[in-house]
Amino acid sequence: MPRKYLGGSGQALTIWISVAASTVLVFYGYDQGVFGNVLINDDFLATMGNPSTGLQGTISSLYTIGAFVGSLSTIWTGDIFGRPKQILLGSIILAIGATIQASSYGVAQMIVGRIVAGVGTGMNTATASIWQAETSTLSKRGQLIIIQMANCITGFAISNWLTLGLSFAKGSVAWRFPLAFQIFFSAIICMLCPFLPDSPRLLLRKDKHQEALEVLAALEGNGATTESPSVRAQYQVIYTVLESENLKSYSWMQLLSGKGPAGVLRRMILGICIQVMNQLTGINLTSYYMSYIFINALKFNSLRSRLLAAGCSMDYLFFACMAYFTIERFGRRKVMMTSAAMSSLCWTIIAIVLALFESGRGNSHDLGIVAVTFFFVFFAAFGMGILGVTWVYATEINALEMRTKGTSLAAATQWIINYMVVQVTPSGIANIGWRFWIVWAVICFSFIPITYLFYPETTGRSLEDIDRYFERKPSIIVAWDKEATSVKRPEQFARMDEEIANEKLGANATVVEAE
């Protein structure tokens, strides 16, 4: 008898999967924002022995080292546990890390808690977007992951408002409670994941054909069964593409050395590089250190800095939600390039304003207003573009057989770059001042030609369409390839689906019956 899932079937089931995957990102966003606000709490600093600026950066950034390790671990554990169980494990580890942090009375204990929590976060962020993508329709895949990203910013906003409210409390509750509150999100995930299905594509890769059919039927909804023609057609397309990749006959090291089907290594590199682009926009300067920046770069007081940071988070959330209406309409490439251009412009203006501010030229009040305005504009530009595009693209671009490994490597790379940015930010602001912001302006601008030249469009394509595109060994430079840059789904891919459904619909019936 088919297994029953939370939400039943169809759209309701998809929504519950999205809720669980999105809660992971709420968790992630909350973790990004909470510690920067904890760092400016006087009681926290006194409890930790008033650490130096460098040590503060280390305590904050070691969380990302844990996340790097957690992301890498899913290369081996992601397919073994499956998507829901991997997220469940990551959430339990994260709750343990939150408990250690909230009960800390010294730097060493806090560092351990940060690393442990990071391991859980790394596992979750390397898995949630794959699970969402592999259980979504091609027309909604980008929008659902945008909802995940909006939830990430919701977590970021919650951390800012919660720490602002508790900043009026006396004693250690002002920083211990926000750190302990991470356990709340873990509890939600633990209540949802055991009752939701795994990815049908992963189940097929593990030769669990009947279970994959049951999940496809449940996701289809409208009374569909494992014998429904539409379910069988989906199953056959996925199975055919998986068999054509033939990656099971290659080892991990052979694929990394360039052997195996054409495009596999290239696709992994594209996924890794786009996550690097995400981290090198400068977003983590603001996510981790917004209040810190306002205090140390613009010389605002603590209350004003917290209020502005909380306001920035709401601006970020609003425009992250607006990306829902653009990512499928305009495509990944155009949205990415426009977002990068606007981000570069924001950092350029902020650098100019801070140069004037530090040299004493101009009215400091007016310069502060301009700087804060363009921090808000940056959040809007990043939230509407790079934020969602980089996460969904890293999941979409990898080959079916390599999706877990490729996405894990992309997430791990993202975290190690994140570590670098979080580690250097306090020292960068303190030592080189306004020049620090020029770096991010130049890097953001470089993403425009990189995206234009090397990144094929994935909007409007099924995950199997992307596999087919790379099977023909396209040129590394895709800018003048209409099939690679069009937002609309190429007609030949739709025809290929019809041919597979018509000619091979029952080809694997014996495989299913034998199981």
At a glance:
This is Major facilitator superfamily (MFS) profile domain-containing protein. It holds the Pfam family Sugar_tr. The protein has 515 residues and is mainly alpha-helical.
Task: Explain this structure.
- This protein is mostly helical and 515 residues long.
- The chain has a single domain (10-471), classed as MFS general substrate transporter like domains (Growth Hormone, Chain: A, Up-down Bundle), CATH 1.20.1250.20.
- 77% of the residues lie in helices and 0% in strands.
- The protein is built from 24 helices and no strands.
- It has helices at residues 10-38, 42-47, 53-81, 83-102, 107-134, 141-166, 173-180, 182-192, 200-205, 209-220, 229-245, 252-256, 264-279, 283-296, 302-322, 327-359, 364-384, 386-396, 403-432, 435-454, 463-471, 482-485, 491-503, 509-514.
- The protein starts with 9 loop residues before the first helix and ends with a helix.
- 54% of the residues are buried.
- The model is unreliable at 508-512 (pLDDT under 50).
Task: Name a few traits of the molecule.
77% helix; globular; mainly alpha; MFS_trans_sf; MFS_sugar_transport-like; Growth Hormone, Chain: A; transport; 515 residues; membrane
